[in-house]
Specification:
The chain has one domain: Multidrug-efflux Transporter Regulator, Chain: A, Domain 2, CATH 1.10.1660.10. The protein is mainly alpha-helical. The protein has a two-stranded antiparallel ribbon. A hairpin with a 6-residue loop joins strand 1 and strand 2. It has four helices and two strands, in the order ααββαα.
Amino acid sequence: MVPQTTVYLIKDLSRLSGHSVYTLKFYLKLGLISEIGRSPETRFRYFNDHTVERLLAIRAFRKQDKSLAEIKALLAG
């Protein structure tokens, strides 16, 4: 059996993570998060549970006063 993953829209990510949609689009531009796909008709971005986890980690790092460059390096491993 294939495990099912939840698919989120950017507004769902905003609600779940506490980040604004504007911030999420900025994180996309910086490469901190990535979309798993896009609807060809609506151009809506799709995200998964991994993105939610990354956003929660980013929020925790920001609370530790880490810069976005430091966070990107930390998440890259």
